[in-house]
């Protein structure tokens, strides 16, 4: 009998498994949400010959202390076969999308995992888009401030026109010789702690997470939008061609209105406090 693993997993992505020689770069890999790559069509090369697999991240039972030296290992990705299922299980597997949280049992054969049982418990969504154009102002201005401070990472809380927190925006340097976007997409640089940070202080509803590398800037943005079905998530999808969104796009005003929290809560920001009794969210210093 094949050994099995049961638990709660994040469906991080669906893609061919990178070849060992390709691990450090994403040049030949399919960019599923990259509008310049032709959508879901495989790019020429070795990846076209490898089947799609699900990149899964097992979710811990409780909070992970970021100061724990083994914290990063808690989010190591694993791969599960995406094809070759039958019956009801085939329908459930084919319906999975990046970002979904599932309760699943995996069976292992010769180091490869297959779903034995699976149930979706939360329909969050992840999007990965490379070489995007027209990066929004909140990200560009925040990155300038981060670099002026001599830092390589940083974050802000964005707000709606009404001043309500609507997203946590994390920015990472994309330094020469590295590939931050590829590391985030492959799960080598974990996204899960950023989502977990939001879930600590918001309701546990589905999120929309956008991993964007702008063509004109040397950073990668991870934008955790609090409400998957809200105006902001729809506008980001529409703006970057990542699925159904607002027909009005940027003209809706919500996206341009997303801005850094510039209120007078500097003491809260410096201490990492969550803000006032209304459940205000502070994204700072939790990377």
Give the biggest beta sheet: 5 strands, antiparallel
Total beta strands: 10
Return the structural class: alpha+beta
Q: How are the strands of the largest sheet arranged?
A: 3-2-1-4-5
- Gross geometry: globular
Rounded radius of gyration (Å): 19 Å
> How many domain units?
2
Q: Alpha-carbon distance between the termini?
A: 41 Å
Strand content: 25-35%
Low-confidence segments, given as residue ranges, are: 21-44, 248-252, 259-287
The overall pLDDT average reads 78
Which H/E pattern describes the elements? EEEHEEEHEEHHEEHHH
Put simply, the count of helices is 7
Percent helix, as a range, is: 10-25%
Biased composition (Acidic residues): 266-287
Biased composition (Basic and acidic residues): 16-32
InterPro entries: DUF6663 (IPR046604)
Region (Disordered): 1-51, 257-287
